[in-house]
Design goal:
Blueprint: H1 2-19, H2 24-37, E1 42-47, E2 59-62, H3 66-74, H4 82-87, E3 94-95, H5 107-117, E4 123-131, E5 134-142, H6 149-170, H7 182-192, H8 197-204, H9 208-222, H10 227-236
Antiparallel strand pairs: 1-2, 1-5, 3-4, 4-5
Length: about 240
């Protein structure tokens, strides 16, 4: 189990390094390879559409069964889908079963989740992201979700970085180097290199408390839930490089 966890940590960092050099189709192919290796057979990578906007128009990569996507869009399920609903309101990745609803008081949500099972979308893992202009999710589907914490962190890193890479290629964003201070970027680079807060404090000759402060500030500015997510977002935006 420990070896498998270490393997996923290494694969996630290799993925981050690889996709920086790939075009959008290349990123999708590599992303699909990695999630299949982790037990997922379907996915969608999309913004959560604003009212009046079609889901197809804001979908970056669609790995759902075609028939399900057709049903989902035709019935406008995105407005009642409990997974999409939770994804729009949290920054923490979650299993689909955590998107709670009451089937009696919220029958539309129950319809979505029940219909999804007809297409082998029984369970899954959702990685939410939030930007100034709205929210997005990478939602991975499986028949039974069984990920250890290291694999979950790896999927989060892979999902966030794949989404941001494709998004930046589809719609280049302005450079945001001013978002983080030089010290915050430096700390994140060492985190990306696998260093602990204590090790970084020794390298930079500052206190461990100061290192943790910079990590908290960088995570806050990037709207990241933890240091792994902060590194992924900083890499995706070009704020740091490995």
């Amino acid at each position: 189990m420990a070896n498998a966890s270490r393997e996923w940590g290494r694969r996630a960092l290799d993925f981050v390094d690889a996709v920086e050099k790939l075009n959008a189709p290349g990123v999708v192919r590599l992303f699909e390879t990695e999630i299949r290796a982790c037990g997922f057979h379907a996915y969608i990578m999309t913004e959560i559409p604003q009212p009046g906007v079609a889901l197809a128009d804001v979908t970056l990569a669609n790995g759902w069964p075609r028939e399900w996507f057709d049903v989902y869009t035709r019935e406008n399920f995105v407005v009642v889908d409990p997974v999409a609903r939770l994804g729009a309101t949290t920054v923490q990745p979650f299993g689909w079963s955590e998107a709670r609803y009451d089937k009696d008081s919220d029958p539309a949500a129950h319809v979505v989740m029940t219909r999804a099972t007809e297409f082998r979308l029984m369970d899954g893992y959702c990685i939410p992201m939030h930007y100034d202009e709205g929210s997005a999710v990478v939602s991975l589907a499986t028949e039974y979700l069984n990920l250890d914490p290291i694999a979950k962190n790896a999927m989060q890193l892979i999902g966030v970085y794949a989404h941001n890479r494709i998004r930046s290629l589809a719609r280049p964003e302005r450079q945001e180097r001013g978002v983080l201070t030089a010290r915050e970027r430096e700390v994140l680079r060492w985190v990306a290199g696998g260093k602990t807060s204590w090790e970084i404090s020794v390298i930079l000759k500052i206190s461990e408390r100061t290192v943790k402060f910079h990590l908290v500030e960088a995570s806050r500015k990037l709207n990241a839930v933890n240091r792994t997510s902060a590194v992924a977002m900083a890499l995706a935006r070009g704020l740091i490089k490995l």
